[in-house]
Every structure is written in structure tokens, then in C-alpha cells.
From TrEMBL:
Alphabetized InterPro entries for the sequence: HTH-type_Bedaq_tolerance, HTH_MarR-typ, Tscrpt_reg_MarR-type_CS, WH-like_DNA-bd_sf, WH_DNA-bd_sf
Stored Pfam families: MarR (PF01047)
Domain of life, per lineage: Bacteria
Keywords: DNA-binding, Transcription, Transcription regulation
Example of a GO MF term: DNA-binding transcription factor activity
SMART domains in the cross-refs: HTH_MARR
Taxonomic classification: Bacteria, Bacillati, Actinomycetota, Actinomycetes, Propionibacteriales
Domain HTH marR-type, first and last residues per copy: 1-134
PANTHER family membership: CONSERVED PROTEIN, HTH-TYPE TRANSCRIPTIONAL REGULATOR RV0880
Identification of the protein by name: DNA-binding MarR family transcriptional regulator
Length: 144
């Protein structure tokens, strides 16, 4: 097997992401709002300061976005049991439904694409899942 062409890998991932993230919206939300919902779905209740570390927003913009999503019934705040001055932000059932619905749409779309691969291509893709997961773990470790 030859040397990995990281430049080509980057381009292929960018192109794949372009088709993968652009789905018909069940509910119109911008990228930042969807990112917050997905982060909370994956990482559970978080403080605003924890969200600031993962989202590409400044504190005033994130605070405003959280207030809007809370007003829309997609998020809720609860007192942090470890610090009464802070609050934890979590998804409501409606927020979780948006995340789950988007995931289901992606599974359906990707399954349709994967069905068009040859058996050998599907085997290569299957063997890549653990490697892509490991790259995600390494990225999280680097961020800490």
C-alpha cells in the first residue's frame, strides 16, 4: 500500500462533508444552532463555558443563541448541582428530536450511496470506520 496523500484525503473529506451535511431541513436552523444541538446530544448537559470551547462563537453570540434555542423549546437550563452559581444546558425532547431526525436522514442518505458501492468498496469503507473514529479521538485529545 502506498503513502497516504493527506492533501487528497483532506479534499475528499471536504467534498464528502459537502454532500453529507446539506440535507433538507425539517426545521430551519443555522449551522451554529445545529452544532450546539449536536454537541449537547453527544456530550450531555454542559456549562456555557464548556460549549464555548467546542463552538466557533464568541461568548455574546453563543449566549444569544442559547437564549433563542431555549425560547424555541429546544434547550433548557438547570442549576449545576456542583456550583449553584452556574447552570447546565441540555436538550429538551424537541431538541433531541431534531438531532435524531437529522441523523436518521443521514443514515438513509448514506445507506443509499453505500448500496451503490461494489462489495470490495463496501469492505474498504467498513474497515475505515474504526480509523476515522480514532482520528476523532486523537483530535479531541489534542484539544485538551
Amino acid at each position: 500500500m502506498g503513502e497516504l496523500d493527506v492533501d487528497r484525503l483532506t479534499t475528499v473529506i471536504e467534498d464528502f462533508n459537502t454532500i453529507f451535511i446539506r440535507l433538507p431541513a425539517v426545521r430551519r436552523l443555522n449551522f451554529s444552532a445545529l452544532s450546539v444541538l449536536h454537541t449537547l446530544d453527544r456530550n450531555g448537559p454542559l456549562r456555557l463555558t464548556d460549549l464555548l470551547a467546542t463552538e466557533q462563537l464568541k461568548q455574546p453570540a453563543l449566549t444569544s443563541l442559547i437564549a433563542k434555542l431555549e425560547q424555541d423549546g429546544l434547550l433548557e437550563r438547570r442549576a449545576d448541582p456542583t456550583d449553584g452559581r452556574a447552570s447546565l444546558i441540555s436538550l429538551t425532547a424537541a431538541g433531541a428530536e431534531i438531532v435524531n431526525s437529522r441523523h436518521a436522514h443521514r443514515v438513509s442518505k448514506l445507506a443509499h450511496l453505500v448500496d451503490q458501492l461494489t462489495p470490495d468498496e463496501r469492505a474498504v469503507l467498513a474497515s475505515s470506520v474504526d480509523v476515522l473514529h480514532r482520528l476523532t479521538e486523537i483530535s479531541r485529545e489534542d484539544a485538551e
